């Protein structure tokens, strides 16, 4: 067969290119544009090069926000992933119970971020909130506006409550897709319950867990509305996470240049962490080279 | 080592079965002897897999008993039955290497690593898996994976029977043949009872010494491939084994003669008597297409037929013939000329089977 070389086919990707340009490239380039200039008004601007980037990277407030952000993301991942897997394992697999439990587990996912913050704000109030009042009655001086520990703990519990269902749902679907023969073979091989989990269920969950962990990492790394409504970033700046610092800078102070530089750094960090994580997981599944 | 006995075994998936049609397995008695290579052959949905799962203990039968060497094992879970099962789709532990996969059942029993190593290497050698031992099971081809799942059954010294549930379904045709030979070899070497479930008659007859044909939840015949072919005990066996299946002619006795429609079929007198004595109106004569003799001119006892169609299959042809209103198939070798239009056929009387209510009636002339 003769292959006909006709590069006109490349034209067919133009619509896609236009779409991507509007959805990703143009907005991103706008940010890049701001990050290398100091804009005063429509006619006055100066090229600043890497100045904003250097300034942002050396800003102690942002550095501590970044550390807090990593601490927060790691903590919620470490709690939500095992907890989500556990819930998925316990969920019934058929009958009306399966549907009922599925709905109950999914509910927190359907609540908008702001509302979650408001719910917990009221929930933790010392006078009328069930949790705040209850803890006080039990003798614990619970106050999220005074104690950084209380504020942190509450935000983490709130995030776990809001997002563990996502991991649980993903794992549940992953578990459902394991053919019955695997469990039967394991019984015949006399595998223990732990071995079934370790060698059948967990490996089959790898793919959904990669998606789950990536989503939860990105989500939690960009968390904004919930802590903002609940604690406003306080007490002090103990719960001020990256996106809140960014908003304060960009909207509150109108520092467009620095915030643009900061946005790009923020974006690159998420990209880098996600890539490293994904590559590491994918490498685990390959055969080891050579070996005795 | 075990002899597996099924006594008055029946199983229904319904909680309170009423009629026989509610049963996946209808009451049956059966014995699988130690060291035999057996096939369980039947169409989809006839209860083969159900029966297999009952033997391995994955299912508990609704009634009757499963005996291993005379001991009742009905309520024993599979892990306590010394049985291995290979499933339709290969089951391997993805994240483990082939070595670890094979070692897994042994590790679960707490055997020492040196013994495990010895056993695994031996089995890997038999299955020709030695070069793959270090690889992750996830990255194997389908046939290698299936060998690994077989291997997990073979490493265990306590395994007395291996059950195969259509194990070659996902294997490429040329590898199927290789794996089947491997199975035979393993069977000879390890002296293990093997029960092989399949819906493929070729697979069954190349693997097994004896085949149990299942139909509607019952074993309708248990015999060697040759017996199944030459003397099917049930019309279903006649139809299911052989290609094309057995010819079945509805017959009755009128004026002291056996007739198919209006055509008189010559049979032995005692066959005629059996048919005449029966009160059933479901009486049929069965004959394999390759036992039907075809002539171009009339012979003694021959019947005139129309040749409807001739299908050339290389070394032989399949003729479709019309005998009155009845359609028959006959097989002739390539060296015999294919008759056109009219032809004459004769049924060797010793090859004619009598089926009353679907079951073969012994006529003592064989």
TrEMBL record, chain A:
Keyword Transport part of the UniProt annotation: yes
Record key words, sorted: Membrane, Transmembrane, Transmembrane helix, Transport
Keyword Transport: yes
Membrane topology recorded in Swiss-Prot or TrEMBL: Multi-pass membrane protein
Entry-linked Gene3D superfamilies: MetI-like
Domain of life: Bacteria
Compartmental location: Cell membrane
GO CC annotation, single: plasma membrane
Xref: SUPFAM superfamilies: MetI-like
Transmembrane feature ranges: 12-36, 70-90, 102-123, 151-175, 196-218, 259-278
GO biological process, one term: transmembrane transport
One Pfam family cited in the UniProt record for this chain: BPD_transp_1
Domain ABC transmembrane type-1 positions: 66-277
The family this protein is said to belong to: Belongs to the binding-protein-dependent transport system permease family.
Annotated protein name in UniProt: Carbohydrate ABC transporter membrane protein 1, CUT1 family
